[in-house]
Amino acid sequence: MPKIMLILAATLAMAANISAADRPNVVLILADDLGWADLGCYGNKFNETPRIDGLAKQGMRFAQFYAAAAVCSPTRAAILSGQHPARLGLTAHIPGHWRPFEQLVEPPNAVRLPLEVVTLAERLREAGYATAQFGKWHLGGAGFGPKEQGFGVAQELGGHVVPGPRQVPPAAEPKRTADYLADRTIDFIEHNRANSFFVYVCHTAVHIPLDTTPELQRKYESKPRVEGYSCHPLYASLLEEMDASTGRILDVLDRLGLADDTIVIFTSDNGGLEREMGGWPGTLNRPLRSEKGTLYEGGLRVPLIVRWPGKTPEASRCDRTGISADLYPTILSAVGTSPPDQPADGLSLLPLLRDPAARLDREALFWHYPHYHHSRPSGAIRLGDFKAIEYFDTGEIELYNLKDDLSESKNLATAMPEQTAKLRDKLAEWRSNVNAQMPQPNPAFNAARRNEWWSRATIAPTSAPGTYRPGGN
Q1: What is the pLDDT of the chain when averaged over all its residues?
Q2: CB of 112 within 8 A of CB of 77?
Q3: Would you say residue 467 lies in a domain?
Q4: Average pLDDT of 386-396?
Q5: Domain termination site, one of 363, 396, 415
Q6: Residue 223 covered by a domain
Q7: 395 and 274 share a domain?
Q8: What is the pLDDT of residue 457?
């Protein structure tokens, strides 16, 4: 049995005495493009997130948790599969875009989460859980939606407004998406209050294009700016909408007496988007470097808050590293359900939820992003306090000591050649182990056209990622 499976089996043994009646419910709330520094409980002084901050006071806040990828679809695949996106061949957002005249040809990106993968929802459903997914999916179209991947109840949604005809039941007036997601989640919880349930709430907040209600916009436009923060009224407003939605879900758990029997998890799919290509900021990830679409900390480090009454210490902070794929074995461990017979890249965080100073038997974290986005095709590894980023077009590598240099401002590659070589070798070995697909030299390379963006959906030129489109998605 592989070492990682032995570790998971040992963790599950700790939870083996959980009876069906005692199994916790699970509410997993996923934000879209929410940066590590955006929440009040992570130090933000402008945005207002009282309900999520309150969740952190009641549970555990992770200071060094990472998205499995710098963009959405791969991270979502990792959450539901427990596998690294590179193993699935799903390393870019679906359907993706590319620069056909660049120096490198990107490897093909999977356009769906394979049905052969036993998802978290499928495993929990097999264990008797009622399952639901509401909101953004982004893991495949017809035949590969949430209902084909283990969710008994589901509704895919995009944008920040749900038209009346799309609501359940149909309504005469549109509704803000964050509020509507709370409606659907509350209804599901109320209908399954006597059962074990798993509900996956997938926000489109705070993804561009940014918009909000007139009332919230006026509130933040009139609020004094705070130095060092983007203080974007629309961004802050949209985040407050998500915060209020989260609060409504927490309230129904309290009202139904389910809070003590429910694990609530809040996280994000990747780091914050600091700028649209037109230049204005959505957020600032400081002190982290850069943003979504890059393998710097600003593109990868995200919030993780877990509340599990009686198990997670209140108002606690965990400084151990974790990654999106860990949520799969963590939830299975918590409910006493064995893992399926398939590759497993995540580790259960259950020991950390009980004791934030505990240690996990993990050597390193890895990322593989062989695509052009807000950066160049690259891979990364974090080993202890050291992190290396390797660029595939030039072979250059950067090395940072995150303990001393959280902002990744001092490249140590030249000063520490042995450490740099060690991380480069481990990254290459890992890529081989997971069969990570690499970009190749482009025979159509054209220096004059290298910055052209094309859509994989239309096979035609398109605007650069992040370009502002009023009213678009």
Answers
A1: 93
A2: no
A3: no
A4: 97
A5: 363
A6: yes
A7: no
A8: 82
Per DSSP, what are the bridge partners of residue 391? 378
Q: Is the pTM of this model over 0.90?
A: yes
In the three-class reduction of DSSP (H, G, I as helix; E, B as strand; rest coil), residue 223 is classed as coil
Summarised one tens digit per residue, pLDDT across range 14-23 is: 444 455 557 9
8 and 143 inside one domain: yes
Residue type, 60: M
Res. 4 pLDDT band, cuts 50 70 90: very low
Work out how many domains the chain is built from and give that number: 2
Structural domain span for residue 449: 368-462
Mean pLDDT within 389-399 = 97
Domain boundary among 363, 382, 407: 363
pLDDT at 13 over 50: no
Q: Give the three-state DSSP class for 295.
A: coil
Query: Alpha-carbon distance 90 to 70, whole Å?
Result: 12
Burial group, residue 84, by CB count within 10 angstroms (0-12, 13-18, 19+): buried
Give dist(CA 420, CA 343) in Å, integer: 29
Half-sphere exposure of 198 (CA within 13 A, CB side): 22
Could you give the C-alpha distances from 150 to 21, 81, 166, 167, 318, in angstroms and in order? 22, 12, 22, 22, 31
Here the CATH number for the domain that contains residue 219 is 3.40.720.10
Q: Which residues contact 138 (CB under 8 A, 6 or more apart)?
A: 72, 73, 76, 93, 94
Q: Which is more confidently placed, 402 or 3?
A: 402
Residue 338 shares a structural domain with residue 425: no
226 part of a folded domain? yes
